[in-house]
């Protein structure tokens, strides 16, 4: 939502393990990222994205040339991932979510 609000990219209810959080087709601007797991805000940060970085793994120190990311986020009841951009309106979001029994 480029008009001033957060946009939900992922909302899960139940027990899940989530990894490989990848945002792509980003533009040079400030981007707000918010992750809430089981009612607790884990990330709520605004960062300046540079024009040279059009893709980013979240929660990872891995490069885009490697497979996967370091972090696995587990939720027991719910997970909510939101972003806000200023001008980008074609951001792609990829992730892996596996139910936990």
Mind explaining what this structure looks like?
- This protein has 101 residues and is an all-beta fold.
- 0% of the residues lie in helices and 55% in strands.
- The protein is built from no helices and eight strands.
- The chain has strands at residues 7-13, 16-24, 29-37, 40-49, 55-57, 73-75, 78-84, 92-99.
- A four-stranded antiparallel beta sheet has the order 1-7-3-4, with no helix packed on it. Strands 2, 5, 6 and 8 form a four-stranded antiparallel beta sheet that branches.
- Strand 3 (29-37) and strand 4 (40-49) form a beta hairpin.
- The mean pLDDT is 83.
- How much helicity do the residues have? under 10%
Beta-strand segment tally: 8
Based on CA atoms alone, the radius of gyration comes out at 13 Å
Mean pLDDT, all residues: 83
Beta-strand residue fraction = over 45%
Q: How are the strands of the biggest sheet laid out side by side?
A: 1-7-3-4
General form: globular
**Main β-sheet, in a few words?**
4 strands, antiparallel
SSE order, one letter for each helix or strand:
EEEEEEEE
Structural class comes to mainly beta
Give unreliable regions as ranges: none
Query: Helix count, per DSSP?
Result: 0
Distance between the termini: 34 Å
């Amino acid at each position: 939502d480029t008009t001033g609000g957060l946009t939900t990219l992922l909302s899960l209810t139940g027990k899940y393990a989530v990894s490989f959080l990848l945002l792509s087709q980003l533009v040079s601007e400030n981007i707000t990222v918010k992750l809430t797991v089981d009612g607790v805000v884990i990330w709520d940060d605004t960062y300046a994205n540079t024009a040279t970085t059009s893709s980013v793994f979240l929660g990872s120190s891995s490069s885009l040339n490697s497979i996967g990311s370091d972090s696995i986020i587990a939720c027991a009841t719910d997970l909510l991932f939101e972003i806000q951009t200023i001008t980008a309106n074609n951001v792609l979001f990829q992730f892996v979510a596996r139910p936990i029994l």
